[in-house]
Write a structure and sequence with these properties.
The chain is of the alpha/beta class. It has helices at residues 13-23, 44-52, 62-67, 77-85, 88-95, 135-142, 220-229, 233-241; strands spanning 2-6, 30-33, 57-58, 100-102, 107-110, 123-126, 129-132, 149-151, 158-162, 168-172, 179-182, 188-191, 197-204, 209-216. It contains eight helices and 14 strands. The radius of gyration is 17 Å and the shape is globular. 48% of the residues are buried.
């Protein structure tokens, strides 16, 4: 069985369309979406409408949860923009998504960890950057979860980690947001290092599981222009470079 795994679209419609087009000739039997679908200054309504028209398993991410709540005054700028563009049906759909799911064949799908949508499973903060965690720390965050494969997102970092005597951990990376900063507890940045759209293919049979991490080009100039139009120079720089920082004056 081939399963396409996507995560962290963050309202980037051209990136999502490019990924779905790339998946088709690979003949994946299904697509699993690990959440954070719409938050960002791009095309949240277009992404929500496209996803709602599909029959994929979609997990609710932390930003999906926040965007579906009723008070935009309490939201970040990216969540607030998405909230303003979404229909009531879009927001209801996001709020009703499962927080984790048994995806059959021994596959557990979640956004962050099985019990916390706002916690990294395979990373931790060191020196304001995300670094890969020790296998024992990953096992601790899995808690009582039992699976052959655990699919997670949230960090926007592509990971394929086989835990000793444990599951395969697969993070497909971010479809539509290659860099971000988190100013909360333990402030840090996440950077993919290039503007490509990222996803993964999971291969499953009776004896083995394996994964392929994929990065593809798409029209990131259009996404950059959209962020600039919505007065988000930080997003524009990240979409163009895959890095987080202040754009140079010549940008």
């Amino acid at each position: 069985m081939r399963i396409a795994v996507v995560a962290d679209i963050h309202g980037n419609l051209p990136a999502l369309e490019a990924v779905l087009a790339d998946i088709r000739p690979r003949k994946a039997e299904r697509v699993i979406n690990l959440g954070d679908c719409v938050s960002g200054p791009l095309w949240p309504r277009g992404v929500a409408d496209l996803l709602m028209a599909r029959d994929d398993l979609t997990i609710r991410g932390n930003h999906d949860r926040w965007v579906s709540e009723p008070d935009p005054a309490q939201m970040s700028a990216s969540d607030r923009y998405a909230f303003s563009q979404l229909s009531q049906d879009n927001r209801f759909w996001l709020g009703a998504l499962p927080t984790s799911a048994d995806a059959d064949h021994g596959i557990l799908a979640c956004h962050g960890t099985p019990s916390n949508d706002n916690q990294y499973l395979a990373e931790e903060v060191s020196g304001s950057r995300l670094v890969r965690s020790h296998p024992s720390s990953i096992l601790g965050r899995l808690g009582e979860a039992q699976a052959r494969v655990v699919l997670c997102g949230h960090s926007h970092q592509q990971r394929l980690i086989q835990l000793p005597d444990g599951p395969l951990i697969l993070n497909p990376g971010s479809v539509g947001c290659p860099s971000y900063d988190d100013s909360g507890n333990g402030p840090h940045v996440s950077e993919a290092g290039s503007p490509h759209a990222r996803y993964a293919i999971l291969y499953v049979d009776e004896q083995h599981v394996s994964g392929e991490l994929i990065s593809i080009g798409y029209d990131w100039k259009a996404a950059t222009a959209r962020a600039e139009k919505n007065d988000r120079a930080d997003w524009a720089y990240g979409l163009r470079t895959g890095r987080f920082g202040s754009p140079p004056e010549s940008f």
